[in-house]
TrEMBL record:
Family matches, as Gene3D superfamilies: 3.40.630.30
A Pfam match: Acetyltransf_7
Residues of the signal peptide: none
Name of the protein in question: GNAT family N-acetyltransferase
One GO molecular-function entry: acyltransferase activity, transferring groups other than amino-acyl groups
Species the sequence originates in: Phenylobacterium montanum
Domain N-acetyltransferase: 68-209
Length: 212
């Protein structure tokens, strides 16, 4: 894998088109394989990996494409999924029903309540008083991690946010990501557990930055 080419691509990412969605879903499924929250609410059996891939394919096709933006290096291997807060809101019932088989495949019956608790906590904490860009997902495939690719994807977006004087918001479940996002101007606004047995999560907000 050409990490230098991937880094250059992350500095000037492309917006993924419909034909790239399966590849982006595969990259994100690999990137989140060891994520604490996905580990907590995902089914524990041999179908876990396939179900996680199915989940990302559904999310990108049904909830993101045509509404948000999926930025990635042209050669793939990483992706950042952004949604404008103005486009967020209650999911229509018909779409909730469409999503149900995919979500149950991801969690199984025993862990579906965990996913519901996570969604409720995220909805409760998500700011609604100011328009902003929401970082839905940022992931780098395991073999490409540690090469600054995610940081470059993030920097490319935040530079445009600064130019338009627009804030941003995200959640993460790993301390390493808290440190990464802090270096890019995000500040922790809340620490929360969706349920007492859940991993800790951090909510983070970023005000637009002024050039030094």
């Amino acid at each position: 894998m050409d990490f230098e080419a991937m880094r250059r691509g992350a500095e000037a990412p492309e917006v993924a088109g419909k034909q790239a969605l399966n590849g982006v879903a595969a990259d994100l499924a690999a990137a989140f394989a060891a994520d604490p929250m996905f580990d907590w609410f995902s089914r524990p059996d041999a179908r876990r990996d396939e179900a996680r891939g199915r989940f990302f394919r559904f999310i990108l096709r049904e909830l993101v494409y045509g509404v948000g933006e999926i930025e990635r290096p042209p050669m793939g291997g990483a992706a950042a999924v952004w949604m404008a807060s103005e486009r967020l809101g209650p999911t229509p019932l018909v779409r909730e029903l469409m999503a149900l088989p995919t979500l149950l495949a991801l969690t199984g019956w025993d862990r579906f309540g965990r996913l519901a608790a996570m969604r409720a906590a995220m909805d409760r904490l998500h700011p609604t008083d100011r328009a902003h860009d929401y970082l839905f997902f940022l992931g780098v495939t395991p073999e490409a991690q540690g090469h600054g690719i995610g940081s470059r994807l993030l920097r490319a977006r935040t530079a445009r946010l600064d130019a338009s004087r627009r804030p941003a918001y995200l959640e993460t479940a790993t301390e390493a990501n808290v440190r990464l996002y802090s270096r890019h101007g995000f500040e922790v606004t809340a620490e929360f557990h969706p349920r007492p047995d859940a991993p800790k999560n951090w909510a983070m907000w970023r005000e637009p930055q002024s050039p030094l």
